[in-house]
Amino acid sequence: MKRIYPYVGWLLLAVALLVLAPAVLSDFRLGLLAKYCCYAIAAVGIGLAWGRGGMLVLGQGLYFGIGAYAMAMHLKLADAGPGGVPDFMALYGDATVPGWWEPLRSGALALVVILVLPALVAGLLGLAVFKRRIKGAYFAILSQALAAAFAILLVGQVKTTGGANGLNNFQGFFGYALFDPANKRMLYFIAAGILLVSILAMAWLYRTRFGELLVAVRDGEERVRFLGTDPANVKLAAYVIAAVLASIGGALFVPIAGIVSPDDVGVVASIGLLAGVALGGRASLLGPAVGALLVGYAETSLSEAFPGSWSYFQGALFVLVILLLPGGLAQLLGLVKGLVSRRSEAERSEEADTRVGEEVAA
After folding, report:
1. For 312, left (φ over 0), alpha (ψ -120 to 50), or beta?
2. What digits encode the pLDDT tens for the residues 281-292?
């Protein structure tokens, strides 16, 4: 029965995202929900690496940014047309396209870069870190430092990345006009669909031998090594999958939000992704995605109600959940189920005592 609960939750989430939300939300609100779905896709990967693998990944903004900037570069080149130059390069630079931009004129190659480049970066970093048995705070600090360095690099390359302003003013998305509301809805369904498929993929992965090994590595790395399996390979695979999911989320974020800047890929953005996972429950299947959606909604709602102090409310909410529910909101669901189970057991015991008393009296 316990194995059915996650799928029931997934089904409810699917109905909420694919049926209820499009029916009741305005185009503007649906666009915001699409943006939250992009964060949630990255959060699903963090749930695998952190929740299942025990790796505190503080720098997922790096991979989110790789996917986002690869997509943004392709969209700018597509808007410029064959042989054209993106508008900001004519403003800041010498109106020539750098050679490393040129391959991204191809949409197919851009998609390959979005999937392969973060896997290569995460693979190289993972090999350097996990093979040397670096873990804990050192790994967390290193991953966060890389995200910070990536954001600083983007800011410094104004002529090729747009600097602090980032890349924006996209007109189309693989032949579809981004100003058309129907196409914006299509993007929402793509983001929601990929999120749901990602969760299903995690449900399958958690039940494979790899998923069991990942938990075993988290709980007793030396025991796994003693049994003949290299824990570094298991952790590396989880880290690469998390990086690719973050990159996919970033790539979808660009046409939905209409902009990407260093603020979306730096340390603060990385911690925001992690906060969603912690809020929802990092060890559960649905927790990371639901937490990311809630954090995105809270950020928007609080910023609209309290423009000058919304971040304090968001921080207080996060602290309260961590203090009262270390396992996230998923722990609250477990507490409710436990309470209902104990109450049912008490009622059954009371009924049994009553029957025994009646039999003795008879």
Report:
1. alpha
2. 888 888 899 989
